[in-house]
């Protein structure tokens, strides 16, 4: 569609895929000259009533002049966009720039008239709302600030599109027409509306994949054991409640394994909601075309041979996504393990897992099939050291996540009534900015636990196209924690935390009671609590002779204590026959816990198989002797998922139990004896069955084989509980009356146009080639470094005053500068290798007169070189205080980030820096200052005078406002910031500008392009 136009080239960057209200997708793109036939065909399918609403008169057909006008645009003053499905138009929107008198105009006129037309068959799908977002973004790009629209009063649907958009608007009625005018500048309400629509649409698109009414398996063969046949058998054996079809072009039979069989999806006489494609990669496009033409809503592609296989496969994957979205479908995969929904209303096992997990309240997402199997194994077997068995609500293994990603699944889980806890294994985050926003919202409603693999590999795994980030992993991790994400490092920790959060309430605080029948185990638990910054009470030893009644009474007493927020019970086995005693102890602990449901209870056990089974009170779903393939090729051969050295992803042999007693899903454990029988299937049609099961499961007490694991999980729950409390009152972004936002915008615009800046390390400036701490990203590509005057002027507009430093290329000029500033002064070098390194001797302080200044100048030049190399400057002395560093950057992936730490090599080496996402609230600023390990130095450590932390917090807030108000400000560094007992002094500053980066998360809704 790269068609040249009258004035501008075809704007390909306006093309985008969007998810509509019903979960389907559409392509939004500019209308070009070669769209004439599509436009005519589209118009012929629009009803007479819709045409009347568009043109205010009967308009049965478009004239040749109309077609030319509506397909020829300059993409500046006249723009047309179309929403397409299957390459055909389903809706159009256009704007024409107008002057104040309503006549056609060009820039600088900043108003345009806008009009929509939606095909009747697609009305009610949210097409017009999506087009409005995109055409508004285009208009803003072209300098248009306001839209006007005239609508007939009877056209209530279109009036609602405008009024619900959230923009500031005016409404008038004249000559029988409603006239609407609205500004295009995004508002808090318009962004809230846009994100609410995004959530509903993306959640619905995932729901169509996880709760289909009918499924077709494309590539199901006659012989058991192949990929397609295995998935078909798994769907059938799980008791899928919808219609199931087998599709294979070589089949002559009408039935396969008891399932209706067809040679093509086109031959199925009923609608198909979901198709699972398990054919070789070269045959996938044909299968996708058949599905699209039949109206299939979504696909799971398990076939391999895509981006994970190299450049050729990556291009094959891109073409697959384009083809799938052309038909308005969503895609999980390719190279996916599959999806599972355990709801009794669906019972979907469209995966390579041979057994359906037990119904539960945990949602699982994994980008790796092998890790997905490991997660299912650890959650649903009595192994991996976690003996409290719980169930799964939904499971998604996305493979190469070419379309549906973790962000989409988060949108679904957010308001999914069947999911209480979300566990995610991520190997890459395609859009960290959006993920952080969605995670913050989700974490406010339910726990989100994340483990990220490949975080130290330096590159995303094969098949994962992600945005480049200049932030180190530790910074991204800190930002995720700020958003409420529970960050853990291993699969074991992921499951440990998930089990606790799924079955126990959040602790109200860090106070932990410890009781049990082993003094040594109690002391280990006590030490583990201290190591995790919890506040343990002295352990209570019940002695080895304690009975079940003793445990119940002690637990009840601890739970009733107002000084306790959580209880850890430690237990060691009794000598001799213990099955009855284990059951009695488990019942005693459950009954005491049920009497105080507001506090969590955890058990640390030592080789208590009977107690573990009794506490979990649930059976595994895996029959003895079965094994789950961790990965299966597209031709149906199975292989055990192992690392290059032959181990499974968690480091164990693929043929033996894990060191802590875990067994792979479906494998029998010699230590545990015969595998339990399959759990009973819940009634399929009873909506109350799931609630009843959840009520039973909620009494389960998670048990751990080691004190450290139990306490680590509890510590994560405590921190998450504290975050939930703080999230309820996130604070506010203060308004400062002395901020000159308009003046700053004009200055920034002028500087970018003129290209005026400095690459010299003048006073208060950082040399572009100078070393910067590892936690500060490098300069943005094409960034303009401001000179000292412009830097000081821009920061001053936001109430940030920088102490000027005057250049001193000779001793005489140094003396003149000191006389101008007034003694005492500081003499310091600004050479890249000495800047901000007082420990190297490049700074001389408290120079009270000319003699001291000349002597210091001579010392510096004799030690470090000529003035031309040292670039000395003279600066007035600031009040003594604590030296700190404040930085703000716009990262292309994570967005705007504010960072704070103390100045000096020690803090840099230790990585003692805290980060917050911009915009920062007053609560964020306060927590940012207090979250570094060296924060006590600001609060009067060892008798020193406390620093003016309030002034520091205001500085952080002002800098946050500057970067948030002006995305052209891509980097600001304030170093050092000396925080005195009263006030602070900014002694050095650098600012970099660049044209505004693409802020995708604040623009119109779009699907990512990988």
Give an overview of the whole structure.
This protein is an alpha/beta fold. Helix content is 33%, strand content 21%. Helix 15 packs across helix 20 and helix 16 runs parallel beside helix 17 (579-594). The protein is flat, with a radius of gyration of 32 Å.
Structure keywords:
1010 residues, alpha/beta, 8-stranded mixed beta sheet, 7-stranded mixed beta sheet, flat, disordered N terminus
Ends apart, CA distance between termini: 20 Å
Which assembly state applies to the chains in this document? single chain
Helical content stands at 25-40%
Residue runs with pLDDT of under 50 for 5 or more positions: 1-6, 382-389, 618-698, 758-779
Query: How would a textbook summarize the main sheet?
Result: 8 strands, mixed
Helix-and-strand structural type: alpha/beta
Q: On the 0-100 scale, what is the average pLDDT?
A: 83
Per DSSP, the total helix count is: 28
């Amino acid at each position: 569609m790269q068609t040249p136009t009258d004035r501008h080239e075809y704007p390909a960057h306006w093309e985008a895929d969007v998810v509509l209200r019903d979960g389907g997708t559409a392509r939004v793109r500019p209308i070009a000259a070669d769209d004439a036939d599509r436009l005519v065909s589209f118009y012929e399918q629009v009803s007479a009533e819709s045409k009347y609403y568009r043109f205010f008169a009967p308009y049965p057909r478009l004239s040749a002049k109309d077609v030319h006008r509506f397909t020829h645009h300059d993409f500046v003053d006249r723009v047309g966009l179309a929403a397409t499905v299957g390459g055909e138009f389903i809706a159009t929107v256009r704007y024409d720039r107008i002057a104040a008198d309503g006549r056609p105009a060009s820039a600088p006129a900043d108003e345009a008239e806008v009009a929509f037309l939606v095909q009747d068959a697609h009305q009610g799908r949210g097409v017009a709302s999506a087009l409005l977002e995109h055409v508004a973004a285009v208009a803003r790009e072209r300098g248009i600030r306001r839209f006007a629209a005239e609508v007939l009063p009877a056209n209530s649907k279109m009036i609602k599109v405008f009024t619900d958009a959230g923009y500031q608007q005016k409404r008038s009625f004249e000559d029988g027409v409603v006239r609407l005018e609205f500004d295009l500048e995004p508002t808090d309400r318009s962004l809230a509306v846009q994100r609410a629509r995004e959530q509903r649409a993306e959640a619905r698109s995932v729901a169509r994949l996880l709760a289909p009414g009918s499924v077709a398996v494309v590539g199901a063969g006659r012989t058991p054991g192949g990929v397609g046949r295995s998935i078909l058998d798994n769907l059938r054996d799980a008791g899928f409640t919808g219609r199931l079809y087998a599709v294979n072009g070589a089949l002559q039979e009408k039935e396969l394994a008891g399932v209706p069989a067809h040679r093509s999806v086109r031959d199925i006489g009923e609608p198909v909601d979901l198709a699972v494609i398990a054919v070789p990669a070269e045959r996938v496009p044909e299968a996708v075309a058949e599905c699209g033409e039949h109206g299939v809503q979504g696909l799971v592609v398990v076939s391999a041979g895509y981006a994970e296989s190299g450049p050729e496969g990556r291009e094959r994957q891109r073409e697959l996504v384009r083809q799938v979205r052309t038909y308005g479908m969503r895609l999980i995969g390719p190279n996916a393990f599959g999806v599972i929904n355990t709801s009794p209303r669906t019972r979907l096992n469209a995966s390579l897992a041979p057994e359906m997990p037990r119904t539960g309240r945990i949602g699982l997402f994994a980008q790796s099939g092998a890790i997905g199997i490991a997660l299912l194994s650890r959650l649903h077997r009595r192994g991996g050291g976690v003996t409290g068995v719980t169930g799964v609500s939904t499971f998604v293994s996305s493979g190469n996540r070419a379309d549906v990603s973790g962000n989409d699944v988060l949108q679904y889980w957010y308001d999914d009534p069947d999911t209480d806890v979300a566990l995610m294994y991520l190997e890459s985050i395609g859009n960290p900015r959006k993920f952080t926003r969605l995670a913050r919202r989700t974490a406010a409603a339910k726990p989100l636990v994340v483990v990220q693999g490949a975080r130290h590999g330096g590159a995303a795994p094969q098949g994962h196209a992600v945005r480049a980030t200049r932030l180190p992993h530790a910074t991204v991790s800190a930002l995720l924690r700020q958003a409420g994400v529970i960050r853990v490092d291993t699969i074991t920790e992921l499951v440990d935390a998930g089990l606790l959060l799924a079955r126990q309430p959040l602790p109200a605080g860090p106070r932990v009671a410890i009781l049990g029948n082993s003094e040594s185990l109690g002391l280990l638990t006590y030490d583990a609590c201290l190591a995790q910054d919890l506040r343990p009470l002295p352990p209570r030893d019940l002695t080895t002779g304690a009975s079940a009644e003793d445990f119940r009474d002690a637990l009840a007493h601890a739970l009733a204590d107002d000084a306790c927020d959580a209880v850890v019970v430690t237990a060691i086995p009794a000598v001799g026959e213990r099955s009855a005693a284990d059951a009695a102890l488990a019942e005693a602990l459950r009954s005491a816990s049920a009497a105080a449901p507001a506090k969590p209870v955890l058990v640390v056990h030592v080789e208590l198989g009977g107690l573990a089974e009794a506490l979990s009170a649930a059976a595994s779903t895996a029959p003895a002797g079965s094994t789950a393939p961790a990965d299966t090729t597209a031709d149906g051969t199975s292989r055990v998922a192992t690392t290059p050295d032959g181990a499974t992803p968690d480091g164990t042999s693929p043929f033996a139990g894990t060191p802590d007693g875990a067994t792979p899903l479906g494998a029998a454990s010699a230590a545990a004896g015969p595998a339990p029988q399959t759990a009973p299937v819940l009634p399929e049609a009873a909506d109350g069955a799931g609630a009843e099961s959840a009520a039973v499961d909620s009494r389960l007490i998670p048990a751990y084989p080691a004190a450290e694991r139990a306490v680590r999980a509890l510590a994560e729950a405590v921190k998450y509980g504290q975050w939930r409390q703080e999230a309820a009152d996130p604070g506010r972004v203060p308004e400062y009356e002395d901020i000159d936002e308009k003046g700053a915008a004009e200055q920034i615009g002028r500087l970018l146009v003129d290209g005026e800046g400095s690459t010299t390390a003048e006073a208060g400036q950082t040399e572009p080639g100078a070393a910067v701490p590892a936690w500060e990203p490098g300069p943005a590509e094409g960034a303009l470094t401001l000179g000292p005057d412009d830097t000081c002027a821009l920061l001053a507009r936001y109430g940030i005053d920088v102490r000027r430093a005057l250049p001193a290329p000779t001793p005489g000029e140094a003396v003149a500068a000191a006389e101008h500033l007034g003694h005492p002064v500081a003499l310091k070098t600004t050479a890249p290798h000495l800047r901000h390194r007082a420990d190297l001797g490049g700074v001389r302080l408290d120079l009270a007169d000319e003699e001291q200044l000349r002597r210091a100048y001579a010392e510096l030049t004799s030690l470090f070189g000529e003035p031309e190399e040292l670039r000395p400057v003279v600066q007035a002395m600031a009040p003594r205080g604590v030296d700190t560093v404040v930085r703000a950057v716009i990262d292309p992936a994570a967005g705007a980030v504010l960072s704070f730490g103390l100045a000096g090599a020690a803090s840099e080496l230790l990585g003692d820096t805290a980060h917050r996402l911009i915009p920062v609230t007053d609560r964020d600023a306060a927590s940012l200052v207090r979250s570094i390990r060296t924060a006590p130095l600001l609060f009067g450590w060892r008798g020193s005078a406390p620093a003016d932390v309030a002034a520091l917090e205001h500085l952080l807030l002002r800098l946050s406002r500057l970067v948030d108000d002006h995305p052209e400000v891509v980097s600001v560094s304030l170093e050092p910031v000396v925080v005195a007992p009263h006030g602070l002094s900014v002694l050095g500053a650098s600012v970099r500008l660049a044209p505004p980066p693409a802020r995708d998360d604040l623009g119109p809704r779009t699907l990512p392009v990988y």
